[in-house]
TrEMBL record:
Annotated keywords: Heme, Iron, Metal-binding, Oxidoreductase, Peroxidase, Signal
Sequence similarity: Belongs to the chloroperoxidase family.
Annotated spans, Disordered: 238-262
Entry protein name: Chloroperoxidase
Lineage: Eukaryota, Fungi, Dikarya, Ascomycota, Pezizomycotina
InterPro entries in the record: Chloroperoxidase, Chloroperoxidase-like_sf
Length: 262
């Protein structure tokens, strides 16, 4: 029998998985800098210890929890695999994702830069800054995501003496920003309830008790490409004339979509 997390969190058996089950990492379990993968692990869609995650597990988890096309989910796995330092690795663990400037990058929406501390842990101060760029109290859209992305990049540049952003990391920032609106939210309207996003980031839990449900329509590669491009285009309109862009690579067309971390 599944244990309800509502109205309070309750520990569950790692063998259970589902929208109505949730438990945080135990003392010998790991989590990473990616809130979405952490969330799916807390719910048991991925192995609850966060270790040695396979391609099939990644594909099944993203499909079962979020209705993400399994081919697209496989791209995520391919990139996550590159963070495992073991030669010829066929799995990854969530804490592998913290290896700096592979997939993990400066100017996160919810983590501090590596220069300042632990990138594995949620940082409320950073997330409060992210929220300050959102203009609507009820609903978020792609423009809100673009503002927050650019704002965090500029803040990181201004405060981190070792700020850096690889081309791959820069591309990921577009995918991450699109994902919390149109993967977790509604890909048709390009919107999501702000309360859902806040709960998701702050608790690493799917916000079903706030009315969220698994999307009925499959999320495809073309959907992510479309919204990544919208974020890029809107970013160009809000950068101040004559200012230095977040990175020079920001003006390039984003690479093939590959990441759903936030």
């Amino acid at each position: 029998m599944r244990v309800s997390i509502l109205p309070a969190f309750a520990a569950i058996s790692p063998a259970l998985a589902g929208f109505d089950t949730w438990s945080a990492a135990g003392p010998y379990e790991v989590r990473g800098p990616c809130p979405m993968l952490n969330t799916l692990t807390n719910h048991g869609f991925l192995p609850h210890d966060g270790k040695d995650i396979t391609r099939e597990q990644t594909q099944n988890a993203l499909f079962e929890a979020l209705n993400i096309n399994k081919t697209l989910a496989s791209f995520l796995f391919d990139f996550a695999l590159t963070t495992n330092p073991k030669k010829n690795a066929t799995t990854f663990s969530l804490n592998d994702l913290a290896n700096h400037n592979i997939l993990e990058h400066d100017a996160s929406l919810s983590r501090t830069d590596a220069f300042f501390g632990n990138v594995l842990q949620f940082n409320q101060t950073i997330f409060d800054e992210t929220k300050s760029y959102w203009t609507n109290e009820e609903t978020l859209d792609i423009k809100d995501a673009a503002r927050a992305r650019l704002g965090r990049i500029k803040a990181s540049q201004a405060t981190n003496p070792e700020y850096s952003m690889s081309e791959l990391g820069d591309s990921f920032t577009y995918g991450e920003s699109a994902a919390y609106v149109v993967v977790l939210g509604d890909k048709i309207s390009g919107t999501i309830k702000r309360s859902w996003v806040e709960w998701f980031f702050e608790h690493e839990q799917l916000p079903q008790h706030l009315g969220w449900t698994r999307p009925n329509v499959s999320f495809e590669e073309g959907d992510l490409e479309r919204y990544m491009k919208e974020i890029q285009d809107f970013t160009k309109t809000i950068e101040e004339p004559g200012s230095t862009p977040g990175t020079q690579k920001q003006r390039r067309t984003p690479r093939r979509p590959s990441h759903f971390g936030f």
